Amino acid sequence: MVAMSLIWSFPPLTASAKPRRVNRYSGVAMASASVNVDNVKVTQGLGDLPKIDLTSVHGSEAEIYLFGGCVTSWKVASKDLLFVRPDAIFDGKKPISGGLPHCFPQFGPGAIQQHGFARNVNWSLVNSENVEGNPVITLELKDTPYSRSMWDYSFLALYKVTLHRNTLSTELRITNTDEKPFSFTTALHTYFRASVTGASVTGLKGCKTLNKNPDPKNPVEGKEERDVVTFPGFVDCVYLDAPEELQLDNGLGDKITIKNTNWSDAVLWNPHLSMEACYKDFVCVENAKIGQVELEHNQSWTATQLLSLA
Ligand code: TA6
């Protein structure tokens, strides 16, 4: 095993700085020089945003933007299983609409901006490893004056991403580094490439549902009765106490297993005609924590997601 630790972060933010605007980091070359494993590379992505390219010795590939700590691409045998919306903006101001965006410290609408701020700020690369030919990186996010302006807590988020032959795994660990307790909700808002008419998810039968169709502002409680859930129109549904394993048939000939630990809930979303340009090409199957996670000083919460192509 070759392992390497590094701290690569954006310049410190002052109270007067506008963190969301710190979007172009000129030190990509410098940062990449400090990554001494050959299967992790820091490159300039779209909009000149720093991007980390992972390559497994087994041929799979992944791309992660530091902006939002967002995995935007996961390729097995050159086929990308994730989807980035054509309207996604890579300007370091708006969240990247696609891949695996973080929703933290809030899922959905609420006291702060929709889906929280973690998808909307720069994460730092703090570790990279080559484990038997498979790349592993860890990103870090800490509170800043910007995050504190809307959520006044000190926290540490560590996000480990591992690429294997036909799996992509993530581990998110949130630690309360504040003196006072805090609570949060969170999700990995995963966009899968799909043919929406052929896509389906199995494993959700029996779950309690909060169905946001027809009115996202007034979810209706129910129970999932179907063995196989499809996407025949607008879908926006929370599944409470979802199982640790779901199966996605993306309608393109691929079967993807979505395993998790500690992501207790799941969300299915397809916007249908409200995103006419792309709704046919993706489905979101999200691991989520809809109930508040409460952490005291120094306590942590950890959840993992493992995506495997059959
Ligand atoms: O996870 C589903 C959802 O919460 C939907 O209600 C919809 O709003 C979607 O996320 C997209 O949110 P976004 O803020 O990324 O446009």
TrEMBL record:
It holds the Pfam family Aldose_epim. Its EC number is 5.1.3.15. It is an enzyme of class 5 (isomerase). It comes from the Eukaryota. Keywords: Isomerase. The keyword Isomerase applies. The active site is at 189, 286. It catalyses: alpha-D-glucose 6-phosphate = beta-D-glucose 6-phosphate. One of its GO terms (molecular function) is glucose-6-phosphate 1-epimerase activity. Belongs to the glucose-6-phosphate 1-epimerase family. PANTHER family: APOSPORY-ASSOCIATED PROTEIN C-RELATED, GLUCOSE-6-PHOSPHATE 1-EPIMERASE. This is glucose-6-phosphate 1-epimerase. It comes from Abeliophyllum distichum.
